[in-house]
Amino acid sequence: MQRTISIPQHWGYPRFALEQRTEQGTILGLYYYPSGTELAEQFGVGWRYALMPNKNSDELFHFQENKIQLFSPQELFSQIRAEIDFYQQQIGIR
Questions:
Q1: What's the CA gap between 23 and 36, in Å, rounded?
Q2: Most buried of the four, 13, 31, 52, 81, by CB within 10 Å?
Q3: pLDDT digits (tens, 9 = 90+) for 1-43
Q4: Is the pTM here over 0.70, yes or no?
């Protein structure tokens, strides 16, 4: 059974997904500040994302949705291709 998450309709749908790669890092978490709350007044209403800048990092950074930049398709392809090459070399070494 696949897990699902229900999001109230009045919240709007998040623009980014968990584990999505962005220029700021990989998205590991997301949360919503609804209007009328203290956090929304302090940080703004809407989705915020927790990102890890790279897989070897122990830091998380938090960004508002409008501050996140996606890689171009070419940049994303190059990044994934480099990872594939790296793991293929690791398999070949052993």
A1: 31
A2: 52
A3: 777 888 988 898 999 999 999 999 999 999 999 999 999 999 8
A4: yes
